[in-house]
Specification:
The complex is a heterodimer of chains A (113) and B (115). Chain A is mostly beta strands and 113 residues long. In chain A, the strands form 2 sheets. In chain A, strands 2, 4, 5, 9, 10 and 11 form a 6-stranded mixed sheet that branches. In chain A, strands 1-3-8-7-6 form a 5-stranded antiparallel sheet, with no helix packed on it. In chain A, β7 and β8 form a beta hairpin. Chain B is an all-beta fold. Classes of the chains: A mainly beta (113), B mainly beta (115).
Chain lengths: 113, 115
């Protein structure tokens, strides 16, 4: 059975800290891995990582895909209270042709002032 | 560019009833996927619609059904509601292109409570 596992499930840090969120996957097919941030309801897209694009960076957020280890990390540097959210990792096995993103349970990040 | 919108925001139903949830895809997107997110869990794929046809389905019973309209908006229908159907229902739209890589953009969801 295809699965995506995220760790830790929850994390509490203070503003200014750097955090690393982990995502590992066991899937029959792999096309891409996506990271989303979910604050209240709508998951908002952060990054897509593929075999030809294994590292992405946007501001204080960066992500790396390790296809050999079947895993990915999401780094957030100099955290702010606005980074508090659930971070979801998802694998797209078929490139969207069948729509089924496989999600992990998410990591709940709380950033204290 | 308009984002994905969903209605209603919240809904309360009783067991056995039927419900219809609605989704308008992001401008220019032709593919809609539906997900169920139970409390404390990641979203679970229900099904996807592309050009008004179901194009992939997750492990959900037939009482979960859907439609996509010519303007690419979509409906999710759930019959014979059960308590376990209480969840956040998310709609995501994407543009089916030729690159082979599709980013799904999510709406704010509909919170369904079944009593």
């Amino acid at each position: 059975e295809d699965k995506v596992v995220q760790s830790p499930l929850s994390l509490v840090v203070h503003e200014g800290d750097t955090v690393t969120l982990n995502c590992s996957y066991e899937v029959t097919n792999f096309r891409s891995l996506l990271w989303y941030k979910q604050e209240k309801k709508a998951p908002t897209f952060l990054f897509m990582l593929t075999s030809s694009g294994i590292e992405k960076k946007s501001g204080r957020l960066s992500s790396i895909l390790d296809k050999k280890e079947l895993s990915s990390i999401l780094n957030i540097t100099a955290t702010q209270t606005g980074d508090s959210a659930i971070y979801l990792c998802a694998v797209d096995p078929y490139g969207g042709s069948q729509g089924n993103l496989i999600f992990g349970k998410g990591t709940k990040l709380s950033v204290k002032p | 560019e308009t984002g994905v919108t969903q209605s209603p925001t919240h809904l309360i139903k009783t067991r056995g009833q039927q419900v219809t949830l609605r989704c308008s895809s992001q401008s220019g997107h032709n593919t809609v996927s539906w997900y169920q997110q139970a409390l404390g869990q990641g979203p679970q794929f229900i099904f996807q619609y592309y050009r008004e046809e179901e194009n992939g389905r997750g492990n959900f019973p037939p009482r979960f059904s859907g439609l996509q309209f010519p303007n690419y908006s979509s409906e999710l229908n759930v019959n014979a509601l059960e308590l376990d159907d209480s969840a956040l229902y998310l709609c995501a739209s994407s543009l089916d292109g030729t690159s082979g890589f599709y980013t799904q953009y999510f709406g704010p969801g509909t919170r369904l409570t079944v009593l």
